[in-house]
Each structure stands twice: as structure tokens, then as C-alpha cells.
Amino acid sequence: MRAYLDASFAALSDATRRGVLEQLGRSDASITALAAAFHMTLTGMKKHVEVLEQVGLVTTEKVGRVRTCRLGSRRLNEETAWLEKHRQLCEARFDALEDVVEEMKRKEKSDGRKKRKE
Amino acid sequence: MDARREKNETTVERKSARELVVTRTINGPARMVFEAFTKPELLRQWWVPKSCGLTLLDCEADVRAGGKYRRVYGYGDSTMEFFGKYLEVTPHSRLVWTNDEGDEGGAVTTVTFQESDGRTLLVMHDLYPSKEALDEAIASGATSGLPETLDQLDEFVVAAGASA
Description:
The structure holds two protein chains of two kinds.
Chain A lengths: L1 H11 L2 H12 L2 E2 H7 L4 H13 L3 E6 L2 E6 L6 H40 L1
Antiparallel strand pairs in A: 1-3, 2-3
Chain B lengths: L2 H4 L3 E7 L2 E8 L3 H9 L1 H7 L8 E7 L6 E8 L2 E13 L3 E5 L9 E9 L2 E9 L3 H10 L10 H11 L3
Antiparallel strand pairs in B: 1-2, 2-8, 3-4, 4-5, 5-6, 6-7, 7-8
């Protein structure tokens, strides 16, 4: 169970892989189409898809020369889902912190300029 | 490269049965990030992200070892209060506080600020009193004083985990 959680979490920790899941939530897609959509090489996209496939979030099927990806049947379990949700909450929070720090930097810079003028 | 991928990544990991660790790099010096954590008027600008549907009604903090803090959130017509005390305050590098609002012993939060090249690596570490306490926090969806209110995330998780 632990190993599955770790692997699932690692699979979701990457923005591209989350993007791929969102994309596949809308429609199935070939690796070539995913690579193009995410401006990646085929090899790079194949690796991302393999990570998602290993934890059951994505399944693939090769017909002729095209490998089609679709969402897997394995439901995210409660803890994995919660961790991802918590991550997104923290992300929103720290994005706002980053804005506050940017504002502090701007203010310090302009205060510095004012002081030099005085 | 789209802008989204260049953003500093936020990671969340259950490090052990009792520990939850969140990391994030902030583009700014540790003294500013530390200040944003310790000045209530700054903290209230970011601690509760707009997207979560809560408002921070009151935020008081006596930031020194042994000093107390209190935060009151509004959610619809109801309010929730969170409080605790600071165990350690080391300017620009380390903050430790307790979370005492629960019935039993709550988590102890340790935040470290590590500056490198003008950027600060933030590590927020929550140590729960027992495995059961962390399991329960996860099951109830409550942590960091915020309930599950991110509807778009529900949608995302459902989409990501939907049965084919």
C-alpha cells in the first residue's frame, strides 16, 4: 500500500503528468499527439506515460504503429487524492506568499531609491 | 515551455506515519519570507488563498517562544477558530508552533527557511502525535486549518481517477 501511495504521489507530482491526465479526461490520445500538445519529444512523453501506466492511472494499447493512451481504471485512493488536494491548496497559498514577497521587494527597491534622493 | 511549468513546484509528502512535509521555493530572501510568516498584516494577505472560499477574519500572533497565536476564519455564516503557541522563533531560519484547536494533542508545525542565491527553500513539516491522528486529519479532509473546499480540485481528482 505504501509503495503504491508513494508511486501514485510521485506520478502526480509532475505538472506535465497532471496535464496529461486532464487531457485524457477529455479524450483518448496517442503518445504522438500528447508529445505535440506538451511540446515534448516522443521519448520524453513515453517516459511520462510509463510512470502513469505503472500506477494504473493510464492504460495504453498499441494498434499498428500508434499507441493510444486512455485513463486507467484504478481509482485514486482517498489518501492519494487528499495529498494532491492538499498540494494544490499549499500551492495556491504559496503562490500568494510569492506575490506578497514580490511586493516587499518592489517596495524596498523604491524606498531605497527615495532614500538616495533625500 | 509554458509559464505553468516554470513556476516553482510545491510538493507534499507523507514522510512517515506521523509526518507530513510540504516544500516550496520562494523567489525572495529568507528575511522577507520570514517576515511574511511572522507579521500578521502580511500573513493575512496570503495564508488563506482566495480560491478556498474562506476568509481570515482575525489574525493575531505574539511571535516569540511561548507567545500565542489565534486565527479566526469565516466560512459562509460560520466561523472557526485556530490557535496555539510558538515553541521556537529563530529569525529568518526557523519557526515552530503548536496547533491546539483539536480535542486531543494536535500537530506541531516546524517551518525552515533556507536561502540560496536570493531564493528561499521553505519546508513545512507537521508532526502529528500519532499515526491515527494524521490518518484522521486526512480522512476528515482537515489540515492547516482549512476544510476541503476546492471544488475544482475535486473535479480534477475525479477526472484523474475516473473509472474508464
